[in-house]
């Protein structure tokens, strides 16, 4: 199970999006020898994670759910992908959140989730642009997975830059900077 990133659909999600993401992640992580697999079955989105007043899902509650679900299966890394708006703590919305592994023990399993809802142009009443959307999904996925490998936010021209807005996501590259890239490489080498 080492070196495998599993993609998990949470709630209803177009399979085509996950298939495309798998392909893009495979390419993005090829130098890190991580392989990407799709978990066939969907995990349902539970009403208990929904905030009726905000009309959003609580990202932390969804993440906890995923964590429990995958713990039994002993997956190495799991990225949950959902198409409902999420928030976290005092943040009005988030594109994703990750469970950062404790200290140096990165070999334990870890999970992250992303929401693709705010990555579509149509969310902002603009006409949809599919290649832009797919690039945003990929960037958010790489960023959150980066956290699950112990990477922190980075001020370089790097995928690990913090995104406070969609413009931030669009401005940052879809790659790790040299420093983050070396950290990740060092970690994956230790897995062997
Ligand atoms: Zn982050
Ligand atoms: Zn970096």
Overall description:
The protein has 192 residues and is of the alpha/beta class. Helix content is 34%, strand content 17%. α1 packs across α3 (130-148). The protein binds zinc ion (2 copies). The site of one zinc ion (ZN) has 4 residues, from α3.
In a few lines, what is going on in this structure?
With 192 residues, this protein is α/β, with parallel strands linked by helices. It contains 5 helices and 8 strands; from the N terminus they run βαβββαββββααα.
Measured by DSSP, the beta-strand proportion falls in 15-25%
Counted beta strands: 8
Structural class, by secondary structure, is alpha/beta
Order of strands side by side in the largest beta sheet?
Answer: 2-1-5-8-7
In whole angstroms, the N-to-C terminal distance is 11 Å
Instruction: Report the average pLDDT across residues.
Output: 93
Helix content: 25-40%
Cofactors and ligands: zinc ion
Radius of gyration: 16 Å
- Which second-level CATH architecture applies? 3-Layer(aba) Sandwich
Question: Which parts are unreliable, with pLDDT below 50 for 5 consecutive residues or more?
Answer: none
Overall, the morphology is: globular
Tally of separate domains: 1
> What can be said about the biggest beta sheet?
5 strands, mixed
Number of H- or I-type helical stretches: 5
CATH topology: Collagenase (Catalytic Domain)
């Amino acid at each position: 199970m080492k070196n495998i990133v599993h993609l998990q659909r949470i709630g209803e999600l177009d399979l085509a999006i996950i298939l495309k993401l798998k392909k893009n992640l495979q390419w993005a992580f090829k130098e890190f020898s991580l392989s990407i697999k799709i978990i066939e079955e969907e995990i349902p989105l539970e009403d208990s994670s929904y905030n009726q007043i905000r009309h959003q899902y609580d990202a932390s509650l969804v993440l906890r759910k995923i964590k429990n679900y995958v713990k039994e299966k002993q997956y190495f890394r799991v990225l949950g992908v959902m198409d409902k708006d999420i928030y976290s703590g005092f943040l009005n919305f988030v594109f994703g959140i990750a469970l950062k592994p404790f200290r140096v023990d990165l070999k334990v399993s870890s999970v992250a989730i992303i929401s693709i809802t705010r990555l579509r142009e149509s969310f902002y009443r603009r006409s949809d642009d599919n290649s832009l959307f797919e690039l945003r999904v990929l960037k958010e996925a790489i960023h959150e997975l980066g956290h699950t490998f112990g990477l922190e936010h980075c001020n370089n021209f790097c995928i690990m830059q913090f995104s406070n807005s969609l413009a931030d996501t669009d401005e940052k590259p879809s790659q790790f900077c040299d420093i983050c890239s070396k950290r990740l490489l060092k970690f994956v080498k230790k897995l062997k």
